[in-house]
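anyone seen this seq b4? input:
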Amino acid sequence: MTENLNTAWRQIASTIYKKPNDSKIFGSVEIDVTDLEIYIEKKRKEGLKITLTHFFLLATSRAISNDIPELNSYSKRGDIYSFPSINVAVSVLKADGEMSSVIVKNADQLTYAESVEVLNHEIQKSRKGSESNTMQLKDTMSAIPYPFRNWIVGIIKKLFIDWGISLPFLDLKPQTFGSFMLSNIGTLGLDIGFPALFPFANISFVMIMGGVKSKAWVVNNEVIPRRIITLGAALDHRVVDASHAGKLFKYLKYAVKNPEVLES
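predicted toks r here
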């Protein structure tokens, strides 16, 4: 798999682009989630407390596993490598109002029920102040006075990101931040956003879920009100292209129309 990923273009792209200064490409799509919301409400009445976040967590992970393995890769020393599993960093709002993230491991192998259990457990841990060693590292770094903080962070970034060296004493390794990041900014009152690629994360893309709004929509040549969500993504052009985003959004549209495919 690694040999298939390392095409001539990928090796050149990994050389000429720098992360994340000039390697970002953006994409967005509007999706009709009217029927999906009905499906979710039905499941919630049955006792399965899923949300749109659980759905897009599973759907995006399944898309990568089934159709787009390139999105589960990262750049190291000019070559492209595959992650051994699909782990997802999900953004959460902590009790103090700051944003953090939790990791959902092997997300493509989860069912709806398992995703609810795992994600809720990790969110509760985070909101109680039980962050990972890596997330707690920011507190240590912030206490270092300027300009020494810049120098130390620069050295860590050079070793960890540019050279791909694992730093066990800092709990930093290639999949520390997951394969990709999912953030639901709709819960914050925002309709859409275009994210940054976190410089310390070896992720190929960040997926943003905007707010769900009622809009006039054309269905069977008739204009009717429908519930629409806008999804946005920022991708690392060193490892993926816009075509991969197109495949991802195509799969998500299919899963929205057929949410039962994620049940097992």
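The CA atoms of residues 63 and 248 lie 6 Å apart. The chain has a mean pLDDT of 86. kinda curious what u guys think
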